[in-house]
Amino acid sequence: MSSDRDLLSINPLFTRDGEARERPRFQMTDDEMLPETAYQIVHDESMLDGNARMNLATFVGTWMEPQAAQLYADTFDRNMIDKDEYPATAAIEERCWRILADLWNAPDPAQAIGTSTIGSSEACMLGGLALKRRWQHRRRAAGQSTEKPNLVMSSAVQVCWEKFTNYWDVEARLVPISEEHPTLDGHELAQYVDENTIGVVAILGVTYTGAYEPVQKVAAALDDIQAATGLDIPIHIDGASGAFIAPFLQPELEWDFRCERVHSINTSGHKYGLVFPGVGWIVWRSRECLPDDLIMTVSYLGGEMPTFALNFSRPGAQVLLQYYNFLRLGRNGYAAVQGANRDVAQYLAHAIGEFEAFDLWNDGSDIPVFAWRLAAGHTDNWDLYDLSAQLRQRGWLVPAYPMPDDLADLTVQRVVVRNGLSMDLADSLLDSIRDCTDYLDGLSSPLPKTRRNTTSFHH
To answer: What are the structural domains, with CATH classification, of the chain?
Structure first.
């Protein structure tokens, strides 16, 4: 039996003579609908989404200039896989990853190789596949088994790495973070690597807190392991956020291809690359780091072309938008935008750190992301999930969630500062946090601990 929820009621002001006033929600009807009516229905239903400027949970970009929006509208029909039909878009894709190879200090950017992806998660998958395949080639050449490969990484990695190890039959060796070692820093790394280790992942901007993992310390630990065992283990940098921050705000930090163990780097163009979703990038330091047998030649729409991707047809407009940003901003423009984001993040972090109720976990000095926890002994009447719920009522999405593994009993709250969160909006957020905290502190009895419905914080 159908219910009222099964029917979509259409405001009579939006319909034209002869149009139905109701449509089923979960079935396609036989009759057409006027484009104006269909537009109004979808437009109005999407109004229930939150205000993107007040969403402090997501890393994904939510704003571009009007000229970029126009370029997007002009080119959203481009299919990135069809390089024969859209050779200019293909050429611009190559320019973009070569610009990134130069930005990330590849020894010879002309000898690097890269590709665009649908996002940094796909780029991570490709980076992991290249590590696994190179390891397999080395083992077979030496007459050794290629069973039981493993990948070493922090327990704070983004969920895409769990997907990679699950989907491609690689053991995930997670190094637990702790109060003493809040990131993968090389501590006790020798306990996790062996002859079956295909690589180590270092995160430039941990999803949970925004902190950089110290690539040089990880590389130094791997140097010591090689000296002791002969194992030569490469590093992949998950720079989903930080690879578009560090070159502009911390240029002296040697996290990129200046470190010889770094074979590949991925990033999200649609995060701090400042592009609408979705576009990601991966670059290998040289062609020998990407096995030839992973690159497939396909015949498509009249031409043959090489491809290394999990997706086939995908949008090319965002690649053009990335190039637009490279031209529009340059190094100084990116530094200005990212610097403004960091200023807002540190302003907020220091202000929240002065609240009696909170202790800062970090202050936004790496990527413009910071987190805090409830101060020990402050209250038993409420927790950060309750604060998150209160802020949501005011339109702010500020997620609360448990830390991984050895810190699973610790709950933190996190703010991601993106382009568009001004100092004025930051003051409004602080006012809301202050008001909500005062309200919760005024409770005379504990709030009930209901099932937590936390905001997703993965990219």
So the answer is: 4-49 (no CATH), 68-325 (3.40.640.10), 341-441 (3.90.1150.160)
